[in-house]
C-alpha cells in the first residue's frame, strides 16, 4: 500500500491527539488548547472575536468563548454569527440538574459558595422609580412565576411565589424568611408579603396594604398583636437625639375643618418632665401629665393633681368628705366673726400680665386670697413654686357660712325671745 500525504497527516494527528493538541500553539499544556488574540466580547459586527466558536450547519446562532483583553475575565456569549448586537439565550441544564458556582456538589438549581449576587440595574440616583412590568422582567428584578404560566414560564395567571430564607436546614425554628405571593385563590396566599423569624410569622402586609405585626389578620392600616391576647400589642417609641425630646407621635389634621396637626410626645426638661397632647406648636392648648401624676390643662407645669388655666363647666363637682377619711374632727367656732371679716369684691382678671392663664374678660365676683388667708388660712392654697400664687377653695367656705348662719340664727332666736318677754310686760 502506498502512503499518501493524507495518510501521513492522519497518523501524525492521531499521535498528537493522544498526547496534547494545540491550535495556535506548538506547546499545548492540556489535551486540547486553543490560543489566539485576546478580545472583549464585541457588541456589533461579525469579525473574528473570541478563542473558540461552536456553530451548526444551519441557523445563524453560535456560541463563542473568549478571554478578555482589557481584564482577567473569561466570557461565553450566545449570539448571531452575522450580527454581534443580536444576542440569544444560553441554557444550563435545560432538562434538569443543578448548577454550582464555587462548589462541585450543588444541592439546589443554583448553588453559590464563597460569593454573593450583584444585580446591576442601570438605574441612576436621579431616575424615578420604574413602573411595574407585566410580561417583561426588568433588569433590576427577581420574580417568582406560578404554574399558570405553563412551560413558557410567563405571567399569564398573575400568580407566583418567592421565598427568601436563611437558616432552617435541619430545624424550621431556626429559619428567618420573607414570602412574596402573587395572585392566589387561597386567601392566605393572595398577593401578600410575610416576614418570619425562628420559623414564626412576625409581620405581614396583606393585599389591601394593611400591616400586621404579631397578627395574621390585620384589620386596620397598622394592627399590632393578636386580638385574643396571645401576642401582646406593644409599641416603644424611642427618644430623639435632640436634647429633652422623648418619643413622639404626630396625628395629621383632617382634610377639612381642621387647622393643626396634633402631637403626642414626652419632653424631659429639667423643671417639668412631662407627657404632652397638644395641637400645632402650642403646648398650652393641650394637656400635660407630669411624672408625679399632676395634670395640667393649658398649663405646662401643674402644681396640683389637676391644674386648669381657663374655665371649667360641669354638671356637678363632688368633694371627698366621708367620715372614715377624717381625723381630729373639731367644730367650727367663731364662724360669724370670720364671715363678717371677709370682704367680697368685684374684679377683672389681669389678662395683660398673665396671658397664659387664659382669663376671661367678664367682671368676676370673689375674694382676694391674701386677705382670706389672714382670716381663714385653711381655705387658701399656694402653688409650689417661687411665685407661690394663692388660690381659694371656695367650696370649703360653705362650711364656714353654714356655721356663721347658725350662730346668727342663735342670736336672732335669743333676740326674738327677749322681744316676746318685753311684749308680755307691756
TrEMBL record:
Alphabetically ordered keywords of this record: Coiled coil, Signal
A Pfam family the protein falls into: Peptidase_S74
Position of the signal peptide: 1-19
Keyword Ion transport: no
Coiled coil: 398-425
Domain Peptidase S74, residue spans: 321-419
InterPro entries: S74_ICA, WH-like_DNA-bd_sf
Keyword Coiled coil: yes
Protein name listed in UniProt: Tail fiber domain-containing protein
Organism: Flavobacterium nakdongensis
